[in-house]
Structures are given as C-alpha cells and as structure tokens.
Amino acid sequence: MKILYLETSSKNCSVAVSDNEKLLCVCEEVSENYKQSESLHTYVEWALEGAGISLKDIEAVSLGKGPGSYTGLRIGAASAKGFCYGLKVPFIAVNSLESMIEPFLDQNYEFIVPLIDARRMEVYTAVYDGSTGKEISATEAKILDETSFEEFRDKKVVFVGDGARKAKDILNLPDADFREDIYPSSQYLIKKTLEKIENKEFEDMAYFEPFYLKDFHGVKKKGS
C-alpha cells in the first residue's frame, strides 16, 4: 500500500512516501521562518519522484495533526484533505509528538518526553514509555518552571524537541538528556499510520480539525 505522509506542525516541513512499512523517500527541511506554504507541494513532488511513483498511485494520506504551529497545521490539513478528496483515498491523522519518540525507543531510556516550543515558557508535551512507546501522560500545554517533571529526577529520561532548549536551562534534572535538534518528521508517522489503517481509524474529512491544543490568538498591529 503506497502512503503519502505530511508533517507541517513545526519548523520542519516534511513529506514522506512508503510502501506499507518500507520508507521509499523522505524530503524535509527545517526553516526558521516556517516555509510550509512555499515548500510543501514541491516536497510532495520530490518525494513522489524519489519513490518512483506518481500521485495517482497513492492509496492513503497520513497527516501529523499537531500540536504545533497554527498556520503550519492549517496548511498541512488543507493539503491532506485536498489529496484525499481528489484521489478518493482514506485520511489518517497521527499525533505529531509520536513522530518525535521513535528514534529514541529501546535506547535505554525509561521515559521519552517530547517538548514543542509554544512560546514564552510554555511547551506542548506528553510522556511516553521508553521501550514500548506507550503514552503515559496525555498531550498538554505546560508552563515550565523549576519544579516541572520532578517525578523524573531519579529516572533515565530524554527530553526531545525545540522546547528542550529552554527546558534544559530551567529544569532541575542534572541527569536528564536533552535533544533540542529533534522535530516532528513524516518518516516516523509510518508505524502508527499502519496501525490506524489496520484498525480502520480513518478521519472524516468534512469534520476533521488539526490538534491545535489551544486557541489561536492573533497579534493586532498598532495603529499608525
């Protein structure tokens, strides 16, 4: 089964194609100015070309549904719906935090904690078992302070994501590992997507909304 994956919830604009569990191609780039609107469809073209297939060969589309950038999520969701509608294929959505933990599973960590920067001292986060990847603590928006994640003081834990940068400075966890260079990536949506297809957990395109986690607040320009 040929599947197209889109992940636009962060600074990493990421597109992948798989044949069932086999990754055929991934195209992605981390950009400080959130280039999803400019790059996404170009990356889709490149990923399909790299996989040696055409768009009409795609049999399902999977989206990293957030949490993350409001604008990035809107762009990804609109594109995924468009592809599914045009191709008449199923639509799958996966929590973007889950795509951040896979490289760290079975690496001798008891817990893996993704941290997506949500501005100021806030992060989007959840807690996963370091061996099984099972969700231990549900996704939430959390304001960091020196007492955050104290329950992991004597545990082998890794914090991953661009929110790990500020977490490292404030958390009182000297034995924890921090990997701030990790972003949600389409290539790590494969396993969870196949599970959802197996269980027929498809999204309703008419009613699907990305996982924003909190309301969007625009910034008003000052009057001239």
Automatic annotation (TrEMBL):
Pfam name, any one: TsaD
Domain Gcp-like: 37-187
Top-rank taxon: Bacteria
Annotated Gene Ontology cellular component terms: cytosol
Organism encoding this protein: Chryseobacterium pennae
Molecular function in Gene Ontology: transferase activity
Protein name (record): tRNA (Adenosine(37)-N6)-threonylcarbamoyltransferase complex dimerization subunit type 1 TsaB
A GO BP annotation: tRNA threonylcarbamoyladenosine modification
Keywords: Transferase
CDD domains assigned: ASKHA_NBD_TsaB (cd24032)
